[in-house]
Each structure stands twice: as structure tokens, then as C-alpha cells.
Amino acid sequence: MRLEHAPMELSLIRSPQLEEIVPTKWFNILPILPEQLPPPLKPSGEPVKPRDLEPLFPRSLIEQEFSTEKYVRIPDEVREAYIEIGRPTPLLRARRLEKLLGTPAKIYFKYEGVTPTGSHKVNTAIAQAYYNHAEGVERLTTETGAGQWGSALALATAFFGLKLRVYMVRISYEQKPYRRILMELYGAEVIPSPSPYTKSGRSILEKDPDNPGSLGIAISEAIEDALSRDDTKYSLGSVLNHVLLHQTVIGLEAKSQLELIGEENPDLVIGCVGGGSNFAGLAYPFMEDRLKGKSNTRFIAVEPKAVPTMTKGVYAYDYGDTARLTPLLKMHTLGHDYTPPPIHAGGLRYHGVAPTLSILVNHGIVEPVAYSQLEVFKAAQLFAQTEGIVPAPESAHAVKAVIDEALKAKKQGEKKIILFNLSGHGLLDLKGYQDYLEGKLVDTGPNKVNLKNLPRIQEKLV
Ligand SMILES: *Cc1c(COP(=O)(O)O)cnc(C)c1O
Q: How many CB atoms are located within 10 Å of the residue 125 CB?
């Protein structure tokens, strides 16, 4: 084949049929939820109006946050960037794992680890950077724990020519240098949090100069920074409706891919949950049939026992951050000042979970389960040995649930079709695997949950 006269188009390098799998619209769960989503509230108890969010987010993202349209068009520039970073991501079948388990179940997974930053987070990062750029925003701030979200947004802001400052939880900044280096390589400024740059950071450092930081503190700092400047807005990597919306590219692709290979609707859809975005991204496009009674697909959401938001949290209005700068969201929460134990799955160390996912859990449509760290790493090792891919410690939670369900199917002799989200690879998380191999991993239950600091709004509502 001669290529020298071919136009240098992406479609010649990547097959056009493949590109067609990338959807042109995102899927919005809001209009088909079994009950109306309780509105975000101000601490006074008044509903937040779209206008109130303008200091933080560009208008197009606020519109998406409140949108009740079932489909939202993906801008061409965003869809092209999706293709450039390797979408559609592969839908793979874990045949060797099936064989090892001796299960009649078929195990499919959507592999989001092939993106340049190694996880699904870039799907919303690209969309958020695009809309901010389109509305003239020059600089973004955000927070990151282990660095998955920060590196995704660092790449996306590099694509669209925005500046980025990332407040990175100090303990991760010190102990996990590789994603920090990745962020800096992409051109972002990375600050250990708590930092002296913000009031919330300074007030913590005054009392406790060695404070290791937390996601809640870093969010407070990023928000305060964005509010203090006209050229800057804030960007969040999970929990909010528009973030989950962008992630539905995963499930929409998976649907087309299953159809292309003549496979039926999955019996089980499984994902891990930090704030809920990779789970929702895969699961929501499969949920309409279930909500309309047209399918029996079960949805399993997996969390760590150390941060049991869905299995042990309360359903209440709470803040998204420690300094109580965010609006109140009605969600499953362990309280905004919950300190998660230092488990290796950094992306699952968040006190709350997406409001839409909370409703689906309340209605029994999504079934939450919790696993402890050791059994999760054991499952991850089995997956690595059979499929070759080292799962991110977060994604390994889903792997553990998949193995359990595949063994149940074996016991009952059922040819179940299981689909799960392998939300990222763990090649930058080998420290966790080292601890596991050296027998240093400990199982931790949850820390003390203190719900006394939930906003007083609940008393007014009842
Ligand atoms: C951040 C992260 C998660 C958890 O976040 P969600 O919003 O719940 O998806 C899961 N897996 C990976 C690989 C992550 O980086």
C-alpha cells in the first residue's frame, strides 16, 4: 500500500468505522430519574440559581448542570479531541480470567486506561477545558488527590491553551511524585495543599503546619483561588451532573460495541465509585431500559470499606468541601469533614457521591457493595496475571466485584453477561502493589463518622 499521496487525515490512520463508534451526543440521566433531583441549595436553604454559579463555571457547563434534555450534542472540537486521545476505547473480553474462574459468565470490560493520562477522567477534562476556552476563560484551578484528575485537566488545558493551577493534597504531592511531574510536563502549576496562597490554606497551616491535606481542603483552596480572580474559573472532576454527562461517552460506546459484535444487553454492569463519574459514565446509558421495565440489568457500584459513602453514609444535604464554600448537594455522605483512612485507592477517598447516583441507590436500581483493601489488591493481581493489565487500585474494586459475580454465576450455572469499567491502569500506582506484595497492606475499616457538622438546613426542611 502506498501512503505518500494520501491526505494526512486522522481518518486514514485510524479506521473511519472505528471513529463512528464515538458518539455525537452525551446521554443525560436527569429527565428519566425515578424522582426529581433535589436542587442544590445555598447554606440559607434557598435553591441555587444558575446565575449563582457563574463566578465558578462557564455558562455552557452551568446549563448542562441543570439540563433536562435527554441528549446533549458533543461539540465537534471535543469529539475530535476524543478521537485524538484514542477514543473509542476498546471493549475487551477477559477470556483468560473467565477460564481461570471456570465461569460460564462472559466478562467484558471497557478499558479507559488507554488514554494518555491513563484513566477516564480526561473525557470530562477535555469538555470542560473546551467550554471554558470558548467562553474566554484564561485560567482554571482545580484540586487533585493522587493526581489522576489533575493530570487529565493538565492535558486538556494544554490542548485548549488555558493556564492551570492544581492544588494537590500535600501527602500525595510528597509521596507520589510521578503524576505531579506529568502535570508539570503538560504545563500546569502544582501547589501542595494546604498552601499559603489562600485563606483556607493559611488558617489550617497556622494551627497545623504539617497538615497532610485532604481533597476537601484542596477543593476549598481551588474554589477560593478561582473566586478571587476574573480570568479564572474552577473545574471539578466528578460528582456534578455535567461531569457525569460527559463520561457517558464510555457507556454509549460500549453499547455500540456490544451491538457490533452481536452481543446482548449485559445482565450486570459494574463500576467503582469515588464521586460516581466512571460508574455513571458506563452505567447510565444502559439504565433507560431498566427504568422503563424493558430490561433486568443489575447495576453494582463498588466502594472501599474505608470510605463507605453509599453503604454506610446518610442521605442528606452536605457541602462538597471542608471549608464549606460549595453549594449544598443532597447526596450520600459521611460528612464533609470525614477523614478517609490512607488507602491506596486515592480516587475513592471522597466523603460524598453524585446526587443522581444517590437517588438511584435509594430506589434500589443501583446496588452498592463495599470491599476492603486486601481483597481488592488480590483480585487486581489475579486480573494482571490473566489479562496482563495492572488495574488502578480504584478500578480494582470493580474487578473484585466482577470476580465475585462470575463465581456466583458459576455456582448457579448461569451464562451471565458481565460488563465492567476498567477506569484506569495502575502503572503509576506500583507503590501500592509493592506494599501488597511485601505484605504491608492493612485492612482498614472506616474512620469515625461525625454527622454533627452536617449543615443545619436539614432541620429547617423537616
Ligand atoms: C478518580 C478515579 C476514580 C474515581 O472517581 P469517579 O468519579 O467515581 O469515577 C476511579 N478510577 C480511576 C482510575 C480514577 O482515576
A: 32
Ligand 1 proximity of 238 Cβ (cutoff 6 Å)? yes
What whole-number distance in Å separates Cα of residue 246 and Cα of residue 118?
17
Strands (E), 199-328: 232-234, 268-272, 298-304, 314-318
Q: Before 90, cis peptide (omega within 30)?
A: no
Question: Does any domain span residue 385?
Answer: yes
Q: What are phi and psi of 168, to 5 degrees?
A: -105, 130
Which of 326 and 1 is assigned the larger pLDDT? 326
Q: Cα(9)–Cα(267) distance, rounded to whole angstroms?
A: 39
> Is 421 a pocket residue for ligand 1 (Cβ < 6 Å)?
no
CATH number at residue 256: 3.40.50.1100
Of all protein residues, whose CA lies closest to atom 2 belonging to ligand 1? 347
Using DSSP's 3-state secondary structure scheme, residue 140 falls into strand
Residues 103 and 145 reside in one and the same domain? no
Residue 42 domain-assigned (yes or no): no
Q: Are residues 452 and 354 in the same domain?
A: yes
Atom of ligand 1 nearest to the CA of 353: 8
| CA 274 / ligand 1 centre spacing (Å) | 6
What would the pLDDT profile of 110-126 be if each residue is shown by its tens digit? 999 999 999 999 999 99
The residue from 241, 263, 298 where one domain ends is 241
Angle in degrees, CA 377, 270, 407, rounded to 5: 65
CA atoms within 13 A on the CB side of 243: 25
Contact between residue 107 and residue 418 where contact means Cβ atoms under 8 Å apart = yes
pLDDT at 450 (0 to 100): 81
218 and 279 part of one domain: no
Domain count, the chain: 2
Q: Give the residue whose CA is nearest to atom 4 of ligand 1.
A: 274
**Binding site membership of 308 for ligand 1 (Cβ less than 6 Å):** no
Q: Is 253 left (phi over 0), alpha (psi -120 to 50) or beta?
A: alpha
pTM assigned to the model? 0.95
CB 121 less than 6 A from any atom of ligand 1: yes
Q: What is the mean pLDDT of residues 206-222?
A: 91
Distance 371 CA to ligand 1 centre (A): 16
